[in-house]
Amino acid sequence: MQENPPILRTSLCRYGMEALAHAEKLVREGQPVAIPTETVYGLAANALDSDAVARIYAAKGRPSFNPLIVHVSGMEMAERLAHFDDLATRLTERFWPGPLTLIVPVREDSGLSPLVMAGLSTVALRMPAHRAMQALIDRTGLPLAAPSANRSGAISPTTAEHVLRSLEGRIPLIIDDGATERGLESTIAAPAGGQIRLLRPGPITADMLTEATGVPVVMGGGEKIEAPGQMESHYAPSKPVRLNAAQAQTGEYMIGFGDVAGDISLSETADLEEAATSLFAALHIADASSAPRIAIAPVPAEGIGAAINDRLRRAAA
Ligand code: AMP
Ligand code: MG
Predict the structure, then answer these.
(1) Running along the chain, 317 residues long, what does each successive block of 10 average in pLDDT?
(2) Which atom of ligand 1 is closest in space to residue 120's alpha carbon?
(3) Is the pTM of this model over 0.85?
(4) Are 46 and 144 in contact (CB under 8 A)?
(5) Positions of CATH 3.90.870.10 in the chain
(6) Burial class (CB in 10 A: 0-12, 13-18, 19+), 256
(7) Å from CA of 124 to ligand 1 middle
(8) Which residue CA neighbors atom 23 of ligand 1 most closely?
(9) Residue of 177, 166, 179 lying closest to 19 (CA atoms)
(10) Domain 11-219, what fold?
């Protein structure tokens, strides 16, 4: 891991032609830029350029054994980078563009920086459904490696302001296109051998994957290197977090859900989609509050609630 990247002036630009032109120039020069996707804000750089990819790891302070997701403009670009069997192809047809990342065998002649895969023979690919990220891929014609735009291990950013707080002085540009729509990182799935392994729960649920393909979904993967981003403590506030809290105790900032009231609520109507969208913003607010600890109401694990509980468990680890 490289620490202490050079100190930069970070510009914050509203999404538009000017911001995109600036971002395109930086990406061509091998710099990473923060840009929204429909899940969270990403820190994007040229996936073919090892110096550019190294700058992502340095800006985040991310361990270099943790591989990155590569964002593509569509199947044509995806197939230049990796091999897609029938099952993988069907998943892309059903869910791309969208919050599904597929783990597929990388092509020998992909041109991808080996840093992106962190030594694996597979690559994580996704076609995002957001105008800003799509436009940047189109303008550069490059596959863009992009993890979440925050310091490694910290809460993921769902607004440009979150990115600024975490990475100011470490990256040259943040494109602001408002709060992200889905609020949770993409689902990561590995289709292979006639089954789908779910490596990270997300907005595309296990049931949706099975329903679309008729193929069984098995949870988790080989625990080790395969998905080191599934590190136990991740998405973590700087304070202790207590889960499944029925009410706040002294000194706790309470995040409510449904009938369980709090200083703030993920969704007063117990709407899980709304809770997913507001989760990270709520954690950022709780983290910035004067309370020394955080408590969070129980959230049912149905549908996207499985992904919410996954993130909550890591926030509390
Ligand atoms: P982030 O960029 O922070 O959303 O995390 C990306 C996630 O994708 C991490 O959990 C990585 O471990 C995972 N990932 C990336 N490439 C692969 C791969 N080839 N196999 C398995 N997991 C991967
Ligand atoms: Mg992340």
Answers:
(1) 73 98 98 98 98 97 90 98 98 98 98 96 98 98 98 95 97 98 96 94 97 93 49 77 97 98 98 97 96 98 96 93
(2) 19
(3) yes
(4) yes
(5) 11-219
(6) buried
(7) 6
(8) 227
(9) 177
(10) DHBP synthase (3.90.870)
